[in-house]
Amino acid sequence: MNGAGLRRLGLGLLPWLGAILLWYCVRWSGFVNVSLIPAPHQVATKFFELLTKEGLLIDIFASTRRVFLGVSLGILVAVPVGFLLGWYRPARTFADPMINFFRALPPIALIPLVIVYFGVDEVAKLVILFYASFFSGVIVMYEGVSQITPLYIRVAQTLGANQAEIFRKVIIPLTVPHILTALRVALGVAWATLVASELIAAQRGLGAMIQNASTYFLLDVIYVGIICIGLIALIMDMILRRITARLLVWQDRAVA
């Protein structure tokens, strides 16, 4: 690793070291009862215990699969809907108030209705994650698509491109950045909604683990669950950013 790489690594690790130091300082300050704040090394010990003896990997897999499916389905529907709303102003005028109405509803408020209509099985959890992903994704999509300048289309028409060529060679490439942004936003929202979705009688999953731990006041387990959710969301976001950089390399070339 060269000097620049080491510098980036150091800058990346610095906030984490600062957070751990702050954690210890809060615990040692005496302002908070130490029994209410497990130390970082205690949480790390509990993490390895859960990992090696209590099937933490199964919980991680269950939650990751739910988020993956919920976001995939949500974005699959949000992309064409967001495109229609962004591209056709009458459609946006017609649907915008309703989308903003439902977007403002917290998924946790819908849990009783979801249980009534979908039961307490896996489908109900996916519905909650789908709901959160769809409305966060569709907003990003239609706001992004509505800002695409028609200049590119007029240039393509001037060069003799037909409608199919304009859609394939102009509109789709211009839409890809907004699809990827919608995917990133939906992924973050879905992880934030995970605990709510696993309120629906989940037996496994990080949200279920946190809820069970709260019943018995196992604060170290709650910390492990929260940190795992954050770490997995971070890893997925980093992967997505790498994919975005590869797919949008043409933007850098165009700017250059």
Please provide a written account of the structure.
This protein has helices spanning 3-29, 40-53, 56-87, 89-103, 111-118, 122-146, 151-158, 163-197, 206-215, 219-247, 249-255. With 256 residues, the protein is mainly alpha-helical. Helix 3 (56-87) runs parallel beside helix 6 (122-146), helix 8 runs parallel beside helix 9 and helix 8 (163-197) packs antiparallel against helix 10. The longest helix has 35 residues, at 163-197. The protein is globular.
Overall 3D form = globular
Q: What is the multimeric organization of the chains shown? A: single chain
Give me the number of helical elements: 11
Mean pLDDT: 86
Helix/strand class? mainly alpha
Jot down its keywords.
256 residues, mainly alpha, 11 helices
Give a brief rundown of this model.
The protein has eleven helices and no strands. With 256 residues, it is mainly alpha-helical.
Task: Annotate the secondary structure layout.
Layout (H helix, E strand, L loop, with lengths): L2 H27 L10 H14 L2 H32 L1 H15 L7 H8 L3 H25 L4 H8 L4 H35 L8 H10 L3 H29 L1 H7 L1
